[in-house]
Sequence to fold (189 residues):
Amino acid sequence: MSKPRAVLDANVLYGNFCRDLLLSLFAAGIYEAKWTEQITREWVGHLLENRPNVTEAKIGRTVALMNQIQPTALVERYEQFIGRIDIPDKDDRHVVAAAIACGAQKILTWNLGDFPNQILAAFGVVAESPDKFVSELIIDNPMAVVGVFKGVRERFKAPPMSVDYFFESLKKNHLDLTAKQLARYHDLM
Fold:
């Protein structure tokens, strides 16, 4: 079975915790993440605008690390598809265009209403929340996902992140289905 390919909308990359989980799963080869320079500019711009403690240098290092993950996540030459897309938020057409251009099956977004599946179906794409997507990855490949999440949890050193706090963080970040699926592997975390 081939790995799922998903375009990450800017809003799923905005929060550190969700971004870290999604990128760690991508770096581990569990799925293939895709984004564009425009998506990057969008989430970085909002982060710099809303969080004064985040510097351009710090977020620049994050973006550089993201762009080093292989296979490359960057989608180019997607603009040609934008005019064919009619969704409620015209400013999100570039996300669908990126999915079409790279052959992604899914768009991961918290704004599902902006990406009606009845419209996306014509392009062979569905919109899903990161929670649904990651919970399905756990069902399909539990040991690999558990290993990645354990590694994410263990990267927290000052202070260390307990397993219970990791589960609380999942729920606090609207990853309830993920927490439910992962609970079966609590002792392995």
Summary: The chain has two domains: 5-128, 134-188. The CA atoms of residues 14 and 46 lie 8 Å apart. The first strand starts at residue 5 and ends at 8.
